[in-house]
Specification:
The complex is a heterodimer of chains A (113) and B (117). Chain A is mostly beta strands and 113 residues long. Chain A has no helices and 12 strands. Helices cover 0% and strands 55% of the residues of chain A. In chain A, strands 2, 5, 6, 10, 11 and 12 form a 6-stranded mixed β-sheet that branches. A 4-stranded antiparallel β-sheet of chain A has the order 3-9-8-7, with no helix packed on it. Chain A has a two-stranded antiparallel sheet with strand order 1-4. Chain B is mostly beta strands and 117 residues long. In chain B, strands 2, 4, 5, 6, 9, 10 and 11 form a 7-stranded mixed β-sheet that branches. A 4-stranded antiparallel β-sheet of chain B has the order 1-3-8-7, with no helix packed on it. Chain B is 0% helix and 49% strand. In chain B, β4 and β5 form a beta hairpin. The chains are: A mainly beta (113), B mainly beta (117). At the A-B interface, β5, β6, β10 and β11 of A face β4, β5 and β9 of B.
Amino acid sequence: AQTVTQSQPEMSVQEAETVTLSCTYDTSESDYYLFWYKQPPSRQMILVIRQEAYKQQNATENRFSVNFQKAAKSFSLKISDSQLGDAAMYFCACLSGTYKYIFGTGTRLKVLA
Amino acid sequence: EPEVTQTPSHQVTQMGQEVILRCVPISNHLYFYWYRQILGQKVEFLVSFYNNEISEKSEIFDDQFSVERPDGSNFTLKIRSTKLEDSAMYFCASRRSSGRAISYEQYFGPGTRLTVT
């Protein structure tokens, strides 16, 4: 069975600083995809960044980047130059096999002014 | 950019009533999904639908739930007799047909908040 674990229920970061959100996953599939979603108070799911497991290069999207460690099954999200608008719940998700998302329990990110 | 839409944004219903949540997937997508998120908890898979039939369902998706694609554009989730514990955010998602990489990605709608009283 697939599992996704986010061990940090809550994180805080000062505005303009950098923060890293942790995620580990487990899947028996060799072909899979990893995602980070942001969920603001509106509760809409907003894709932040994606990573294909077959790609060794870490994905980046502007201020967002990942550290994908395939052997360790780790997929952390780094947010640089944090902004007040980054405050939200962040969910890590794995997509493999039967193509349904398995989500982690989320990390609430607070950005301090 | 095409989007998945969902209606209503918020539905309030009494316990025991039937509700239908509606979704309009992106037009060239062929796979459709429903997920549920109870307040404060993670998002959970309910069901996937392809070629007019359920391809996979979770143990949450019991006989009280059904899905339908009635007219080629809408994708609906029906809860026959709602319970208090059905109160949650329900997300619809869709994706294109098979292929590598980005085509596996599911596009989420904004969600319907269901409140059962």
